[in-house]
Here is the input.
Amino acid sequence: MKPFIYDYTLEQLQQWMKENGEPSFRGAQLFDWLYVKRAKGFKDMTNLPKALREKLDEQFAFVTLQEITKFESKDGTVKFLFGLHDNHAIETVIMRHNYGNSICVTTQVGCRIGCTFCASTLGGLKRNLTAGEIVAQVVTAQQMLDATGERVSSIVIMGSGEPFENYDATMAFLRIMIHEKGLNIGQRHITVSTSGIVPSIYKFAEENTQINLAISIHAPNDALRSKLMPVNRRFPFEEVMEACRYYIAKTGRRITFEYALIGSVNDRPEHAEELADVLKDMMCHVNLIPVNHVPERDYVRTPREDIFEFQRILERKKINATIRREQGHDIAAACGQLRAKHMESQTR
Here is the structure.
């Protein structure tokens, strides 16, 4: 299997050119073809010498994302199910907002974190994606948007998988996305979401970026979080909170805490009160997420009025909280749902 050309940063492409007897500026030309002109093959890169194009074709592969399914919601959300070279499948979602187009990318095939309300973990973890396979999701989405003169303006790493368990590939992806000579996505327009992989939170704090960090907590205490998120047994709630305090102190940046509201499980007023006490004095924001129904799970959605009451309690205790706007509800846009249906159909 040849390495993917999208796996390489600009600096790595320049180094490859030097090592192969080419001037380093050829690396910048190649990078421009990949991310500004968005070429789909080396043969299209007409300002590169023919011999170089042939050598690149021998040495590298473009990521092949085969479109298995594409659904478009009434609200403009587009969800792709892409097939990979090894017959695995991943999901990517484009979300349209009044402030621009956001793309939700996947970092792993499946997930081993095991959150009991999530479809992504059904079937477990198959493998990590390479940086290039994550990059290709954004490039493919941008190529679709090119037809209407639109662009990807923000990225959320909130698709299937745990990005902090695929840390190096995730960081390489981010460096490619924010490069000013490429897609040039603003760092503050990118959010990485983790279930609380404590060593990686500390590591990310040292990266010196402006990229946003979101932590999925989904419970206000250790016992309940362990029931909902088995990863809490590896990284207990208080250890996650301590890592978050370190991140805030180190970076001076606010953390978003994601909290999926599950009917009669973690959505009672006493849960809101306890959560507010845990988060007091932290520079943070709580994103309340009405849980999506997953047929394989038994959980139900929190009633609308209870969602608003949970928010009111947090805000009364000086914790900033918003309710996530639902998108793609009519096309199974929750993480892992489309892939789960595909996996089921493949085993029939």
Residues 208 and 251 are 7 Å apart (CA to CA). The chain has eleven helices and twelve strands. The chain has two domains: 5-59, 66-346.
